[in-house]
């Protein structure tokens, strides 16, 4: 087994645990999602052998090629922008979509899922930082969107996801993570059918410890695991 990979994973896991404990949280409540975009299937197999269970891909075609080889030995998460005409390719592979960000996508997803008799856990992507370069709903639009999407057959809304702009100092991401958590709490209080707010997908290599401190339940970490570039 690749020792760098094993070492990187051990370090990331330790930092997640420390951040969780420091915040009075149970480290078991934080899922480590290894972002494997750009990585060959052989490296994913090594990560699985090192105890990784969940992997994230951001391109439909690339993800499919790896799925053909690895199959359901990994739990696949789709984390990238999803074009509506590619929905049909993700239905059977992925256990969670992190990037539900528009009604046209939700409708197509629901149509296809219900036709196949399937359900999919989805996170609504929110652009908490108001960053023009990023996808996602404005925070003010999210509650109504979630309510409408929760009524669509096949779609289970299980939480929110955000991707703040890249920053040198992870502390700069903290207000964005906090805002996402508060938004999830606000949505939870509305108690909409078909909606749970149990997951917060937030934190990447540059800022995952801050995200854990702010309540993240899924950190999406790529380069810290596969290249050793940590915060
Ligand atoms: C690439 C990517 C990540 C991981 O980024 P790293 O900085 O490599 O940890 C997380 N989330 C999304 C949506 C990504 O595209």
Give the helices and strands, then pairings.
Blueprint: H1 3-22, E1 31-35, H2 41-49, E2 54-57, H3 60-70, E3 75-78, H4 87-90, E4 94-100, H5 103-116, E5 120-125, H6 142-150, E6 155-161, H7 174-190, E7 195-201, H8 208-213, E8 218-221, H9 223-226
Parallel strand pairs: 1-2, 1-8, 2-3, 3-4, 4-5, 5-6, 6-7
Bound molecules: pyridoxal-5'-phosphate (PLP).
Residues 35, 37, 58, 79-80, 163, 204-206, 220-224 line the site of pyridoxal-5'-phosphate.
Helix count from the secondary structure assignment = 9
Approximately how much beta-strand content do the residues carry? 15-25%
State the end-to-end CA separation.
24 Å
Number of strands: 8
What does this structure look like?
With 231 residues, this protein is of the alpha/beta class. Helix content is 41%, strand content 19%. An eight-stranded parallel sheet has the order 7-6-5-4-3-2-1-8. It binds pyridoxal-5'-phosphate. Pyridoxal-5'-phosphate is lined by residues 35, 37, 58, 79-80, 163, 204-206, 220-224.
At a glance:
The chain is α/β, with parallel strands linked by helices and 231 residues long. It has helices spanning 3-22, 41-49, 60-70, 87-90, 103-116, 142-150, 174-190, 208-213, 223-226; strands at residues 31-35, 54-57, 75-78, 94-100, 120-125, 155-161, 195-201, 218-221.
List keywords for this structure.
alpha/beta; globular; 231 residues; 8 strands; eight-stranded parallel beta sheet; binds pyridoxal-5'-phosphate; single chain; 9 helices
């Amino acid at each position: 087994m690749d020792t760098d990979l094993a070492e990187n994973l051990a370090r990331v896991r330790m930092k997640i645990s420390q951040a969780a404990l420091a915040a009075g949280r149970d480290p078991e409540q934080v899922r480590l999602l290894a972002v494997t975009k750009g990585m060959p299937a052989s490296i994913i197999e090594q990560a699985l052998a090192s105890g990784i269970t969940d992997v994230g891909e951001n391109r439909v075609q690339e993800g499919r090629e790896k799925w053909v080889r690895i199959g359901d030995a990994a739990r696949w998460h789709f984390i990238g922008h999803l074009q509506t005409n590619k929905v049909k390719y993700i239905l059977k592979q992925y256990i969670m979509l992190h990037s539900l960000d528009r009604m046209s996508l939700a409708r197509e997803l629901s149509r296809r899922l219900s036709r196949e008799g399937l359900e999919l856990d989805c996170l609504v992507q929110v652009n908490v930082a108001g960053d023009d370069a990023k996808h996602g709903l404005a925070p003010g639009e999210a509650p109504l969107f979630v309510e409408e999407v929760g009524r669509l057959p096949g779609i289970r809304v299980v939480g929110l996801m955000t991707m703040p702009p890249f920053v040198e100092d992870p502390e700069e991401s903290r207000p964005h993570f906090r805002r996402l958590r508060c938004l999830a709490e606000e949505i939870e209080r509305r108690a909409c059918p078909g909606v749970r707010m149990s997951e917060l997908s937030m934190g990447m290599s540059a800022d995952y410890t801050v995200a854990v401190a702010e309540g993240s339940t899924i950190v999406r970490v790529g380069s810290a695991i596969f290249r050793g570039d940590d915060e």
